[in-house]
Specification:
CATH topology of the largest domain: Immunoglobulin-like
Main location: membrane
Helix content: 25-40%
Membrane topology: Single-pass type I membrane protein
Subcellular location: Cell membrane
Keywords: Cell membrane, Disulfide bond, Immunoglobulin domain, Membrane, Signal, Transmembrane, Transmembrane helix
CATH architecture of the largest domain: Sandwich
Protein name: Transmembrane protein 81
Number of strands: 10
Length: about 220
């Protein structure tokens, strides 16, 4: 009877679909005979669990627009017939992961919505996911939210210059060009040219004099 028995076991498995929190993995289940032969293989999806700590996600949102923070995506698998319990906390006005600074929020759903987002909503939101019944913590994620004021969002840095700005810039450019033209007309320019020319001529004469003296000395 032992020789004829067949075991159905997982012979291959994929990594968990997530690095933190609950996810899925795919296993290849086969019947294995005592001789090691595999038969009647099939692929089966099963529950898996990564690290419970998902870290801090930084988010920026413009004020006045709707925003939603999602702790656990819809359709996330759970082990057996268990369901999840969600707990939200907030450290208002801070970007932090220090658990001592968080205060509880009245929200027990997997998502937190703002309609619309306001500057007062800025801060760090922490979501804990636990299994109902055992209260085992399977996921903890932090959302560091910055809400950008509307007057900063509406700045248009790429707009072309107005006609008055272009005229002002053109006047500044012409003034610089006129300054260079006046420099060429000044007496200081000619004095500088004469000074440089005199220095070069003096150097040439001095070199000729030294050469002549060296030849006389050799004779």
């Amino acid at each position: 009877k032992l020789r004829a028995s067949v075991a159905r076991i997982a012979v291959n498995t994929t990594p968990c679909s997530v690095t933190c929190g609950p996810g899925l993995k795919v296993e290849e289940i086969c019947e294995v005979t005592p001789a090691g032969e595999r038969r009647s293989c099939s692929l089966v999806s099963s529950y898996c669990l990564g690290s419970f700590l998902c870290g801090l996600r930084h988010l920026s949102a413009p004020a006045g627009r709707p925003l939603q923070l999602t702790c656990l995506a819809p359709g996330t698998p759970s082990p057996g017939n268990h369901s999840y319990r969600y707990t939200w906390r907030l450290a208002r006005g801070l970007i932090t992961t220090s658990d001592l600074l968080f205060q509880p929020l009245r929200n027990s759903s997997p998502a937190l919505s703002f309609s619309p987002a306001r500057e007062a909503h800025a801060g760090t939101y922490r979501c804990d996911v636990q299994l109902l019944g055992s209260f085992k913590l399977v996921k903890r994620i932090y959302f560091g939210l910055r809400v950008i004021p509307r007057d900063l969002v509406d700045l248009k840095f790429q707009e072309p210059l107005s006609w008055e700005q272009e005229l002002a810039e053109g006047s500044a450019g012409n003034g610089s060009r006129g300054g260079w033209e006046r420099f060429w007309e000044k007496e200081e320019f000619y004095e500088a040219v004469l000074g440089v020319g005199s220095g070069v001529l003096g150097s040439i004469l001095l070199s000729l004099l030294i050469c002549c003296l060296q030849r006389l000395w050799r004779r």
